[in-house]
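Might you be able to review the protein record set out just below?
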Amino acid sequence: MKKLPRAKKGICYIYGLVDPRSNKVRYVGVAASPYHRLYGHLHEHINNPELDTYKVRWIKKLIGLGTPPRMVILETLPREGWEVREKWWIAHYRHIHGNALTNSTEGGEGWNGMHHSEDTKKKCSEWQRGRKLTEEHRRNISLGLIGRPVSEQTREKRRVAMTGKKMPPGHGERVRKKALARYASMTVERKKELSDAVSSRMLKKDKRVGGSSKYLGVCWNSRNKSWQAGIRKPKSGNFSLGQYDTEAGAASAYNRAARELYGPGVTQNVIPGGEVDEPRRSRFGKKRGRTTSSEYLGVIKKGESRWEASVCFNAGKKHLGYFDTEKEAAQAYNDYVVKNSLDRPLNPL
């Protein structure tokens, strides 16, 4: 038996299930990985014992006879436009060859084109009523929905459904209390699991598929001839980390910001030779150096008699206040660095 192909990027396969007794195709389908799809067909009656379709009964009968169906690849094609070809193959075997296909539809739409009888709808409803999902199943559904993109069509449907709809008094407060109570009852492991899932989804959006850099959160700024670093901040979207002369410098800035925002266990760039501490450029393409208004780190002069102290992060800036003397501002900078255990050099006072 010829080895079945596995999943390949951008490729799908139209296949047929052949009855060994007659060597005729009895089912036509489409799959990204025929190898795994055949396994699903052969175990469908075990995984879903309540499922009772023409195809399931046929496969179950063949397995009982010791002659399971074999799969043949009919056509290999891009994942766009497979619907037309699946319809063609179903019509080819059903109407030209006269095969008794077990397909429930004419193809091209999966289960969406199948119209159940009222009796079947009633059976499905009774089967679903009162069914309880396991905790593992609920957790998998929850993690799968985190960060899932919503199409514009779905957004429009929700908008139309909610237009003019008035919520009962106190509805928002009840929802908020319920969510807080559910979060409070979660275990530490569950909270970490959700946090890691959100971090992973957020950081996946930073990687440019086929972009100008091999590193996460880095791209080439052709206008300023520099490497641009950026990251997605939770609940606030994209955040610029500045421009750098080297790609490694921008990737290092991304790593530092990722650790500050998502913790040390987050996915980071692997940079040959290790991270570099490269100064970022100004918006006009010049390197940023230390300010000439003060000899101390984190201190700049404001006006004629005030000094501002601040600590700059890759993901933002923390203002520490204004002081009458330069040394007071420098001391405030040192105190903040020590108190928060930051990896920053201190001012010599």
